[in-house]
């Protein structure tokens, strides 16, 4: 027997793994590892299924957008318009009009017209410009009135248009009418006055209840721009202003915060919404922080949709408010639209972060 043969039958101290036998320590550790794994799995399942009811979860993250859409299945008519509601006769069909051009698209041309007419204007005050063959018609907000600048070849003239008040209506602006949070209602297309939603958490982690008061004001005015031509032909342009204010109060009556959305729609009756301007105002009591204030316009065919989203936070509380306002060429402002509110508790109190 060689030396290698003698060594092959002995355990190698440098490579104990070559021994296929079970050591006493390994036999004792296997049941312990299995028990630890079972405990970890059991705790995980408890947190997953029972945790929300016993307070294991301190909160959750909430979305930063509220999806809002509007689909009107009814064909718009004069009888369903605010003109009819205000007792205004249906206007005669206006002559075919080119689409209004916004200031940024013809900035150089518009600036030259303003200089020639000696009228002050800015990107916020300029309503828009119509281009006709051989002429341009520019409309500019100048205080309470609208100034029309009409350029025909080398001549230029200005006309002061005084808006005519068609009608106005107001709803709300009284005592708080809604209690938040409300039962969850997230069915498609539902954007009623207020929606409350929060993830299933322990009672102590649910958002506090707020009282919501809502007020809306709709005002319609009319101007009659003079069109180029040998005869003073005019075209009615309606200025539709819609303002909505949502105010949140504590159950003790203290005002927590208020969000006001204002949209002004310039409507060529029966044809399309030509231009939209918008603004917002937010007030908040001590402790509340405005995370963001977003506004934007979507042109949906001949109609225009104004969307306003505001997110506020206080400690670990988060409140997201979304508003959708729609106006179409028949000057309809659907009453079924309003604001949606999403409310949740964050995992931490790090300001606007989740």
Write up what this structure looks like.
This protein is mainly beta. The chain has two domains: 98-162, Roll (Nuclear Transport Factor 2, Chain: A), CATH 3.10.450; 165-354, no CATH class. 14% of the residues lie in helices and 39% in strands. The protein has helices at 3-8, 24-49, 51-54, 82-85, 107-117, and strands spanning 126-132, 135-142, 145-152, 155-161, 164-172, 178-180, 210-223, 237-249, 255-268, 272-284, 289-300, 303-314, 317-327, 339-345. The strands form three sheets. Strands 5, 6, 7, 8, 9 and 10 form a six-stranded antiparallel sheet that branches. A four-stranded antiparallel sheet has the order 1-2-3-4, covered by helices on one side. The chain has a four-stranded antiparallel sheet with strand order 11-12-13-14, with no helix packed on it. A hairpin with a 2-residue loop joins strand 3 (145-152) and strand 4 (155-161). The radius of gyration is 33 Å and the shape is elongated. The protein starts with a helix and ends in a 9-residue tail after the last strand. 28% of the residues are buried. Residues 1-23, 46-59 and 182-205 have low confidence and may be disordered.
